[in-house]
Design a protein that fits this description.
Layout: H1 2-16, E1 33-38, H2 44-55, E2 59-60, E3 69-85, E4 91-106, E5 115-127, H3 133-161
Parallel strand pairs: 1-2, 1-3
Antiparallel strand pairs: 3-4, 4-5
Length: 190
């Protein structure tokens, strides 16, 4: 009985401090019915994002007319560039860059949540061995898969934030400020 009370107390303490299991996101209520418009090639990222949305109680609908929000994924790019070369001028290290744009738009007057177009980018590097070309091709694909999984997490974290209010510009400083050291005014030339 004491053991059960300690477990319940521990769970209550964890939940009260804001602890959540990995993969659990608090997505806005306006997203409860979302249409996923994917303009990128079908693959791991789209599958993982769909599953993560479903796991977070988001109903993915078949058409934008049924949805409150449209989550649009587009402009996916994977770029590989040479980072270093050996004495013979052969590539020894590559950097992989994975970029994706997304936005969340309301459908009609059903919802008011809006996330303007966002560009997310991840980068990883790896060493290249010309003697093991097939192994390095597999390594490159594994890195891309990892970046796509990380991209899903970044998208969900950004969606969790909801719309970001624009920050008001700070009030302008007075044009002439008195200096403490000599009592002169900044901007005056003596």
């Amino acid at each position: 009985m004491l053991r059960l009370a300690i477990i319940v107390l521990f769970i209550n303490l964890l939940s009260s401090c804001g602890f959540h299991l990995r993969g659990g996101y608090q997505l806005p209520a306006q997203m409860q019915k979302t249409y996923l418009l994917s303009e990128i090639k079908p693959g791991l990222l789209t599958q993982k994002l769909q599953q993560s949305l479903i796991d977070n109680q988001i109903q993915l609908v078949d058409s934008p007319e049924e949805a409150f929000e449209v989550l649009r994924l587009y402009d996916e790019k994977t770029i590989r560039r040479i980072v270093s070369v050996d004495a013979q001028g052969r590539a020894r290290e590559y950097a992989l860059s994975y970029q994706l744009k997304f936005e969340l738009n309301p459908v009609g007057d059903k919802a008011d949540l809006l996330i303007e177009p966002q560009t997310l980018q991840l980068q990883k590097s790896y060493l290249f061995d010309p003697e093991d070309i097939l192994g390095k091709a597999r390594e490159e694909q594994l890195l891309i898969d990892d970046m796509q999984k990380d991209m899903v997490r970044l998208i969900l974290l950004r969606l969790q934030l909801g719309p970001v209010n624009t920050i008001e510009k700070p009030a302008l400083l007075p044009q002439k400020v008195t200096g403490k050291a000599r009592g002169e005014k900044f901007g005056d030339s003596k």
